């Protein structure tokens, strides 16, 4: 029973009514009509006082002995939209009046007779209390929920945080889907949520059957579907699975949540724009959980599947894109390249440096490296006109999600290292970054930082000599070429190299000392990288 929204069946099921021996003598199939109010009246023309949805209680004192009046009474109830007529037997009628019963059946108005004396005032009081309590409870929920969600929106929380709050109010899993029924975000108790996402194709078909024409639809089993729209455009649905409250509170939940989600979408992200903000956040949440290891692969698998990423018989390849000039890579450019090459993948930004990560899903029968190279070439061609060159780092191909986290770490590392020495091809892999990649991977280690100080200490305060050393090593110890790049004469270059040897107390012709110096210089330069 839904307090605040009762039906004729709900009223007849009240414990208070049981001793009165109620019998439905007409239209038993129409007991699910909503009851808006209870009205006690004996006047034959009571219909003029009704506005629809009332359950009318009468003893029929003024109808006894007049069959035409009985029929007219029932017909007036139909015109007024009364939910049902309850006739108390005993004073005017000892049995069900047949003309009233036939008229009620013909007009589609449920007719209930009470075979035992019934105090109408007690029933009216009980029903009105339930109706008013439910409505006040719904108003209170609307006020509390509206204020809480508005505060979250004003503080700029991500979609996931907002949906967590909605699921908390609903007390059940909450899922946001786009118009193709792909999951953009989900919240709720992990076990129940996992069961839904594991069989999402079947669940989404059931959601489609629940959808109604109104902004909020309350379906069976506590399923609530709210349309998500703003600026005259619909972009998805919010679905609450298994709300335990009544239909009235369910409608309030759906309306308030949909309003808050619309505001969140319109506020959007100035970088991404409101058109793709949620899709980006959904991909970010999935990839972040995968790369960080905060969720187990078996928990992520249904989420990937529900988001539309193919996962059966696939090779997963993480890819990271960075711009050498430090500018942000646009997710939209990467998505378009994926579409053009017919490659399935999730795309998301990596905060805060503007890099983009993509998890490619490639059919296992295809060559994953070749597919990645082809996509990288397309990306390079698309990104080249937008500014500085892009660096694309790829991890190793993974047949199972358990391996993807390690491959993601590799892709981030490779893209980072490749900034200092871009590969010859469109995409860099671990084998391409060699020693430079290893040094960059270890650049935060205290031992390596101490090594830099030991090897380069006296030069760290002489950036001009440090640059001479860098040029000398980069040109393969060719002093003439190094002098040209430094725009100095050869004698000047010799003198500067001698100064370096004196300051460091080394000989640049000693291969071991020179190698140690080279590694320290790579490590020093890595400190300045992303």
Structure explained in plain terms:
The chain has 530 residues and is an alpha+beta fold. It is 49% helix and 16% strand. It has a 5-stranded mixed sheet with strand order 2-7-6-5-4. It is rod-shaped, with a radius of gyration of 37 Å. The two termini are 60 Å apart.
In whole angstroms, how far apart are the ends? Answer: 60 Å
Please, what is the average pLDDT? 82
Structural class: alpha+beta
| Number of DSSP helical runs | 19
> What is the approximate shape?
rod-shaped
Strand content: 15-25%
**Spans where pLDDT lies below 50 across 5 or more residues:** 270-276
Strands of the widest sheet, in order across it, are 2-7-6-5-4
Q: Would you count the extended β strands for me?
A: 16
Major sheet, described briefly? Answer: 5 strands, mixed
Helix fraction by DSSP (H/I, runs of at least 4): 40-55%
Radius of gyration of CA atoms, rounded to a whole number: 37 Å
């Amino acid at each position: 029973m839904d307090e605040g929204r009762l039906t004729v069946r709900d009223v007849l099921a009240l414990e208070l009514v049981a001793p009165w021996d109620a019998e439905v003598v007409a239209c038993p199939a129409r007991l699910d009509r909503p009851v808006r109010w209870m009205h006690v009246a004996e006047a034959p023309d009571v219909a003029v006082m009704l506005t629809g949805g009332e359950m009318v209680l009468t003893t029929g004192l003024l109808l006894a002995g007049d069959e035409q009046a009985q029929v007219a009474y029932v017909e007036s109830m139909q015109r007024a939209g009364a939910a049902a007529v309850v006739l108390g037997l005993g004073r005017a009628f000892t049995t069900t009046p047949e003309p009233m019963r036939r008229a009620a059946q013909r007009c589609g108005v449920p007719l209930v007779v009470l075979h035992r004396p019934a105090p109408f005032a007690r029933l009216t009081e009980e029903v009105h209390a339930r109706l008013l309590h439910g409505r006040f409870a719904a108003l209170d929920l609307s006020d509390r929920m509206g204020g809480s969600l508005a505060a979250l929106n004003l503080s700029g929380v991500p979609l996931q945080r907002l949906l967590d709050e909605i699921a908390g109010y609903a007390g059940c899993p909450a899922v946001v889907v786009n118009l193709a029924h792909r999951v953009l975000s989900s919240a709720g108790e992990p076990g129940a949520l996992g069961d839904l996402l594991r069989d999402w194709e079947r669940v989404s078909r059931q959601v489609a059957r629940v959808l109604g024409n109104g902004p909020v639809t309350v379906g069976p089993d506590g399923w609530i579907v709210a349309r998500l729209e703003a600026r005259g455009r619909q972009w998805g649905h919010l679905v609450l699975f298994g709300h335990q409250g009544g239909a009235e509170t369910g409608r309030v939940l759906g309306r308030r949540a949909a309003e808050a989600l619309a505001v969140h979408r319109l506020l959007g992200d100035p970088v991404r724009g409101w058109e793709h903000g949620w899709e980006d956040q959904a991909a970010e949440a999935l990839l972040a959980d995968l790369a960080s290891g905060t969720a187990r692969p078996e928990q992520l698998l249904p989420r990937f599947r529900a988001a539309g990423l193919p996962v059966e018989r696939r090779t997963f390849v993480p890819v990271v894109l960075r711009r050498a000039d430090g500018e942000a890579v646009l997710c939209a450019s990467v998505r378009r390249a994926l579409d053009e090459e017919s490659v399935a993948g999730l795309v998301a930004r990596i905060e805060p440096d503007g890099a983009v990560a993509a998890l490619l899903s490639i059919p296992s029968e295809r060559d994953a490296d070749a597919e990645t190279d082809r996509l990288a070439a397309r990306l390079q061609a698309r990104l080249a006109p937008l500014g500085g060159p892009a660096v694309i780092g790829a991890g190793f191909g993974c047949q199972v999600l358990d391996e993807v986290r390690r491959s993601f770490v590799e892709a981030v590392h490779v893209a980072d290292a490749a900034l200092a020495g871009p590969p010859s091809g469109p995409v860099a892999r671990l084998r391409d970054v060699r020693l430079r990649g290893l040094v960059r991977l270890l650049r935060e280690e205290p031992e390596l930082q101490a090594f830099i100080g030991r090897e380069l200490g006296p030069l760290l305060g002489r950036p001009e000599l440090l640059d001479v050393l860098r040029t000398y090593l980069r040109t393969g110890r060719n002093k003439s070429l190094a002098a040209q790049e430094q725009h100095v004469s050869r004698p000047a270059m010799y003198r500067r190299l001698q100064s370096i040897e004196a300051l460091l107390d080394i000989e640049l012709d000693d291969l071991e000392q020179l190698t140690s110096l080279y590694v320290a210089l790579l490590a020093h330069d890595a400190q300045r990288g992303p």
